[in-house]
Amino acid sequence: MASCRLPLAFCVTLCVSLLAFYANKHIKQLKTQPSSLTITNYSSTTTTTMEEIRHRTLNVNGIDMHVAEKGEVGAPVILFIHGFPELWYSWRHQIEALSALGYRAVAPDLRGYGDTEAPSAAAEYTCLHVVGDLVSLLDAVAPDQDKVFVVGHDWGALIAWYLCLFRPDRVKALVNLSVVFHPRNPKRKPLETLNAFYGPDYYICRFQKLGEIEDEFALFGTEAILKEFYSYRNPGPLFLPKGKGFGHSQDAQITLPSWLPEEEFNYYYTKYEKKGFTPGINYYRNIDKNWELTAPWTGSQIKVPVKFIVGDQDLTYNAPGTKDYINKGGFKRDVPFLQEVVVMEGVAHFLNQEKPDEINKHIYDFFQKF
After folding, report:
1. Is residue 349 annotated as a catalytic residue, yes or no?
2. How far apart are CA 156 and CA 303, in angstroms?
3. What 3-state class would DSSP assign to 30?
4. Where is the AB hydrolase-1 domain (predicted)?
5. Is 0.85 surpassed by the pTM of this model?
6. Is there a catalytic annotation at residue 154?
7. Is residue 82 annotated as part of the catalytic site, yes or no?
C-alpha cells in the first residue's frame, strides 16, 4: 500500500489522493455509474481465461522479470504496474477486459515481487532501478511501439509518475489509481516529514529498519498479514505499533473482502509465502534515496495526458492536504495535461479489484481518445 500526502513529493504509495473537484474547468469530476459499455463481467476470473494469459520470463535491466500478457502482438500495449502488497495478478480483471477490447495487456511482477528476481540489497529498489526495469521491458515486448499506454496503482502509481517524469517519450497516456503526483520538495526529506507528522508508529516509518517489521509480520503469519492489508478499509492513516500488528490478536479471524474470493487470495498467499515481504518493503526503504536521486527533476511537470481515479474510502483520498492540492489547482499545475479526476463513491484502496467493470470502462474510454 502507499500513503503520505504532505508537501513532500513522491512520499510513498498510499499517501496521497483526492476529493471532489470544483476548481478547474479543464478537469471534470465524475461519479462512477454502472458501465454503459458492453463488457463481459470480469469480476470472477475463471481458470480457463487465466490459462489463456501468456507467461514468460525476460532478462531486463540485469534481472529476470516475470510478465503476464494477453492480446494480439502488434496491438496497442497497455503496461499495468502493480503496488504493495500486490502482484501482476492484481490486474487480472483488466487484462481480460482490455485484451478483449483490442489492446495488448502487459503486466509484470515488479522487481522483488512474485516470480521476478529479488535482488538482496535494499539499495537496489530505487525508483531509477524500477523505471529502468520497465523501460527495458518495453524494449523487449514492444520494440515496434515508441509509446505505450500505462496504468498504475499504489506504488505502481508512484512508479508510473516517475516513468512519465523520466521518460515521457515512452508514454502515450496514463491512467493512475489512488496516489496523486507530488513534485519534489527540495527543503525537506520525506521521512523527516512523515515522522514529524504521524510519529514513529506510522506504517511507513515502521518499515524503515531492515528486518524489524518482517520479524513482527512473521509472528502473525503471511496469510493473516495479507488479509489485514486487503481488508483494510479505514480511511485514516495506518499505524502499526510495535508488537501489536494491526491491532488484532494473532489468532483473530480476518474476513476477506467480497471482491477477493479465497481461491484468488490463495494466489497471493502462495507467492508471498515463498518470497516474503522484504522485497516489497524495500521500496519504502528508498523513499529518502529517491528524493536524493530526483533532485535534477525539481520543478518538473508531468507532460503526458492523465486520468486519475480514487475511491472515497481510500486512505490516500483522505490524507491531510490532498483535497486542497486537488481543489486549489496544485494537481493541475503539476500535471498540466490532467484531463479527468474520478472519485468512486463507497470504494476503498484496491479499487481495480473491488470495482473492475467500472475501472475497465474508465481505462477504455480514456485510451480510446488517443
Report:
1. yes
2. 18
3. strand
4. 76-181
5. yes
6. yes
7. no
